[in-house]
Amino acid sequence: MSSKKSPIHPLYQYRVFRDLTQEHIAKSIGVSRAHISGIERGTHVPSKKLAQAIEQATIGVVKAEDILLFHDHYSEENSKPK
């Protein structure tokens, strides 16, 4: 039995490294904490505008392109037959 780990979202890595909460990020860009949670889990696809807002809120550390590519990669991994 293979236990494959899910990839770690770059926004999650940023938050943990800087000891920030989802609520902190959410307030800084004007969305709900649940919205940030969904983005980090890969269950919510952020708009390009929201991904750019996250990039600005993280002072360019978390790139909008990486946020958008994460979901593409994550959804491909989950759609492969097991």
TrEMBL record:
InterPro entries given for it?
Answer: Cro/C1-type_HTH, Lambda_DNA-bd_dom_sf
One GO MF term, please?
DNA binding
Where the record annotates domain HTH cro/C1-type, the positions are 11-57
Q: What SUPFAM superfamilies has UniProt attached to this entry?
A: lambda repressor-like DNA-binding domains
UniProt cross-references to PROSITE patterns, sorted A to Z: HTH_CROC1
What CDD domains does its record include?
HTH_XRE
Task: From the Swiss-Prot or TrEMBL record, give the protein name.
Answer: Helix-turn-helix domain protein
Query: Which organism is this protein's natural source?
Result: Desulfurispirillum indicum (strain ATCC BAA-1389 / DSM 22839 / S5)
